[in-house]
């Protein structure tokens, strides 16, 4: 699958669309979800052109992976999510319900989340 450069997260990363940025480093960006499903609902994006966890995991450099983890850790610390817990989600592809074809990790917290029987 070829990466779609028109997707909204690519536009946000390149400052061609607005977003509420809460953190960034060289290779990752954190924005607030425009349609939050929990009191805290952040999206962690690699700045590189990866459409899924799979392409990121396969092709990203160690530095890019570390920067993504640093961004996740920032959010957890900034919003004190470790106190009561949180959830990381990476919807992937059609079956996974991914709607934006740029790899992103949802971080949800701030209330008891439904478990979907998992
Ligand atoms: P997914 O379904 O996992 O691909 O998630 C995409 C997420 O991006 C959804 O939760 C949307 O609410 C969110 N989203 C879409 N457009 C924007 C935007 N412009 N700024 C922030 N979040 C967005």
Could you list some keywords that capture this structure?
118 residues, five-stranded antiparallel β-sheet, binds adenosine monophosphate, single chain, alpha+beta
Can you describe what's shown?
The structure is a single chain. By secondary structure, the protein is α+β, with helices and mostly antiparallel strands. It has four helices and five strands. Strands 1-2-3-5-4 form a five-stranded antiparallel sheet, with helices on one face. It binds adenosine monophosphate (AMP).
Strand content: 15-25%
What Rg, in angstroms, do the CA atoms define?
A: 14 Å
User: Spatial order of the strands in the main sheet?
Assistant: 1-2-3-5-4
Quick one: how many beta strands? 5
Distance between the termini: 30 Å
Instruction: Give the bound compounds.
Output: adenosine monophosphate
The arrangement of helices and strands along the chain is HEEEHHEHE
Counted by DSSP, the helix tally is 4
Secondary-structure-derived class: alpha+beta
Specify the biggest β-sheet.
5 strands, antiparallel
Shape type: globular
Q: Percent range for helical residues?
A: 25-40%
Average pLDDT metric = 97
Please summarize what this structure is.
The chain is 29% helix and 21% strand. It is an alpha+beta fold and 118 residues long. Strand 2 and strand 3 (40-46) form a beta hairpin.
Topology:
Layout: H1 8-13, E1 21-24, E2 28-32, E3 40-46, H2 53-59, H3 62-78, E4 86-89, H4 93-96, E5 105-109
Bound molecules: adenosine monophosphate.
